[in-house]
Structure prediction request, 201 residues.
Amino acid sequence: METFNLRNGKKLVVEHCDFAESPREWDNLTKCIFFGNYKHIGDKHNFDFDTQFDSRQDFIDRGEDIIKKHFDAVLVKPVHLYEHSGTSISTNYGYPYDCRWDSGTIGFVIITKEDLRNEYGWKLITQKRLDSVMDNLNSVMDSEIDTLSDYVGGQVYQFEILDENGEQEDSCGGFYGSDISKNGILEHIDAEDRELVLEQI
Prediction:
């Protein structure tokens, strides 16, 4: 729990949100196709990893192509997990997601042709259209996985504003990410109090 002083004797109290909703319940552009012990944190699917791959190496070698074909996907990125004194996931395979002992690949984040048709109203998906939105699509994939990582890692927060007598004046929860300057909490207080909080971080 963190407490920040506001004007007129008020305080902003920020703490973990224990009843956060999975971001996979939202209206996402992507689909998360996970397997094994982590299947439940992604989206529901009927893809059977066990019958498609002979070994982990086979999964690494052929996984993206098979997923792309099975789901009629345009973009596919592996999703890696790091679990050591906490859990996080990422589309980045660099440190610590390449750790020999505490990391692994848990599935894929994908964007299907159907997703693109729904998002952009396209009837025909051409390479020119894809190229025009490719940077945005990659950013969305990374962002949606980052938000899911905040959720599975318990990095979801809530706040309350206490008046000068310690009575609750306002409260709200469901802010994903530990950086209070970026997770949206400060948008709920006025500009002068926002500056005060930023000075105290």
User: Anything to note?
Assistant: The longest strand covers residues 73-83. The helical segments are 49-52, 56-71, 113-120, 127-152, 191-200.
